[in-house]
Specification:
Helix content is about 65%, strand content about 10%. The protein contains 17 helices and nine strands. It has helices spanning about 5-20, 20-35, 50-60, 105-110, 150-160, 180-190, 205-220, 230-240, 245-250, 250-300, 305-320, 325-365, 370-405, 410, 440-460, 470-555, 560-589; strands spanning about 40-45, 75-80, 85-90, 95-100, 120-130, 135-140, 165-170, 195-200, 225-230. Helix 7 (about 205-220) links the parallel strand 8 (about 195-200) and strand 9. The relative contact order is 0.11.
């Protein structure tokens, strides 16, 4: 029976210790720590009141997420396996953790108990002893208030690089909306495994038509994702009554099958492939010196050519360690270009947002659309920052591959994990308090304008023998008074619009400043991660080539008497390393 990924790593780690390659052993130790964390994180996302929390509860057969017509999820809830039920609340700082009774969870993660997340919780961890979670599955119930293009949707987009899969939940009341399809397109750029679930099929008889329409929308949007219709109500009733036929009608058996075999199975296959690549890379370097020594022993006449080749290879590999190495230049230039491009993209998106905001403010009275405009501006700002982050993530992956090309096939096998969180769009907008124009002010303004008009027309009418106050002068005063009130109202509207535009510009400037600073910090961290990773890789390659060169030189100096024995020993050692490589290739298959 072939070894598991963990057993293969243990064999490889013992081999690196036996051949005194502690540097390679450290890389395998990191891979083993990564393998020992088998959690597969699945984000459950969707618009407001689509049945996400009830879906999670039905999957695990436990009321872990609060569900009610008046309750909305305000804090992400992570549901994972635990021997005993437990709830842990995590604050802004990962170290701020406190345990609460499971029946008090709704008081902290719902909009009713924790409006606007005033407790400033990052997420809640819920542990339940359920078989469906025992394989490492972690379901994340995300907030959906405000739509997928809202700040909540942007925060969901921010954690997508750390997710292994995404489940988009939409009920059968209507077909997919534009924001949902936009979210799916962006999500697949960072998390290719996406599954669509159509909920509440028990409430809407036309759910089959909605399902077909949604499949058509997915195909038109070039989104490669399957759609599974389910009914959480039927699922829970089937569990209570132990009705297997009703459970099949709920659609959950197919959903659970997809979670276990497609998502968990795919994650396990990816983990095995990653382990196999790490082990193959290590065995290649371990066997390099043995192959060089064996070639020098078997063919002494060509040993000088082999040594010359290894010397040239050492020069090339040693050049990779220099600060002036080409991969260093590619990395430094790439990060500089990336910072400039990401900053330009952010400013361009914010400039378009500001232009839209100013055009909108030209046509409305800011005093009457305060809440609507504030919500719209926050949503569009968060969406722009989120889209900028998606592009940053794609460019970062591209840059890593560009740097890896300098290392040949060995670099492609050793790409680092570049999962990072998005910058937070934390700037807030408040509509300026406009000048009030009440009835008293209108009367005073009208009297002031009408008085001047009455006196002016009255003085002119005295030439015709009329009194100062006559029907003509009074009518003129009323007209001028009305015009003065109208002009004052227009002036105050223009002033409110101007102040709102200034506030919008300050909001956008703050957003550019905050998101831009965090993006630059993120890219600098990316630069350090890639630099440290490939520097360590260059040192590994340099040591491997140096040992191969030393082994070939030593073989060239050996006498004929010891040659046969050494050939036998090296062949046996090389056979062991080749066997380890064979196990890795078998695991990869």
């Amino acid at each position: 029976m072939p070894p598991t990924a963990a057993e293969l790593l243990d064999l490889a780690i013992r081999a690196t210790a036996a051949y005194r390659r502690e540097d390679l052993g450290e890389r395998l130790a990191v891979a083993r720590r990564r393998l020992l964390d088998p959690e597969v994180r699945v984000l459950v996302v969707g618009e407001f009141k689509q049945g996400k929390s009830l879906l999670v509860n039905s999957l695990v057969d436990a009321p872990v997420c609060p569900v009610d017509d008046d309750l909305a999820t305000a804090v992400p809830t992570l549901v994972r396996y635990a021997p005993e039920p437990s709830v842990v609340l995590v604050g802004d700082d990962e170290h701020q953790r406190r345990q609460v009774p499971i029946d008090q969870l709704a008081q902290h993660v719902s909009e009713a108990g924790n409006p606007g997340n005033r407790e400033r919780l990052r997420y809640a961890e819920v542990g339940v002893p359920r078989t469906v979670l025992s394989g490492g599955l972690c379901l994340v119930d995300t907030p959906g208030v405000g739509g997928l293009d809202s700040a909540h949707g942007a925060s969901t987009m921010a954690v997508l690089p750390t997710a292994d899969a995404v489940i988009l939940v939409s009920d059968a009341a209507q077909e997919y909306t534009g924001p949902e399809l936009d979210f799916l397109r962006q999500a697949m750029k960072m998390c290719p495994t996406v599954l669509c679930v159509l909920t509440k099929t028990d409430l809407y008889p036309q759910w089959r038509r909605i399902a077909e329409l949604n499949r058509g929308h997915l195909a038109a949007a070039d989104v490669d994702a399957d759609l599974i219709p389910v009914s959480s109500t039927l699922r829970q009733h089937a569990i209570r009554t132990q009705d297997s036929q009703l459970n099949d009608e709920s659609g959950f058996p197919e959903l659970i099958h997809r979670l276990r075999h497609d998502i968990l199975g795919q994650a396990a296959a990816l983990a095995d492939r990653s382990v196999a690549n790490d082990v193959l890379s290590v065995t290649t370097q371990l066997s390099a010196s043995m192959q060089a020594e064996l070639a020098a022993y078997r063919d002494p006449h060509h040993a000088e050519d082999l040594i010359a080749q290894l010397t040239r290879a050492r020069g090339r590999v040693d050049a990779l360690k220099e600060r002036s190495a080409r991969w260093q230049q590619t990395l430094n230039d790439g990060v500089s270009d990336l910072i400039a491009d990401i900053d330009y993209d952010l400013r361009d998106r914010m400039r378009h947002l500001l232009r839209e905001a100013e055009e909108e403010l030209e046509t409305v009275d800011p005093a009457t659309v305060d809440e609507e405009f504030t919500l719209w501006l926050h949503q569009r700002g968060a969406a722009a920052a989120s889209a900028n982050f998606v592009w940053t993530h794609q460019r970062a992956q591209w840059l890593a591959r560009q740097v890896a090309e300098h290392f040949g096939d060995a670099g492609e096998q050793a790409l680092p994990d570049l999962s990072f969180h998005a910058p937070t769009a934390s700037s807030s907008f408040e509509m300026p308090a406009g000048e009030r124009f009440g009835i008293g002010q209108k009367v005073i303004t009208g009297m002031r304008g009408g008085y001047g008009g009455t006196i002016m027309i009255g003085m002119l009418s005295t030439v015709a023998g009329l009194t100062l106050l006559n029907p003509v002068s009074v009518a003129a005063g009323l007209l001028l008074g009305r015009k003065t009130v109208k002009d004052e109202r227009k002036r105050m509207l223009q002033r409110r619009q101007s102040e709102a535009k200034s506030a919008a510009r300050r909001f956008v400037d703050d957003l550019i400043f905050q998101v831009g600073k965090e993006s630059r910090d993120l890219l600098r961290e990316l630069q350090r991660t890639l630099r440290d990773h490939f520097t360590a890789h260059a040192q590994e390659l340099s040591r491997s080539v140096q040992e191969a060169l030393s082994a070939a030189q030593q073989a060239l100096k050996a006498d004929a008497g010891s040659r046969d024995g050494r050939i036998k020993d090296v062949t046996a050692e090389l056979s062991r390393v080749d066997h380890l490589a064979g196990l890795a290739r078998e695991l990869a298959r």
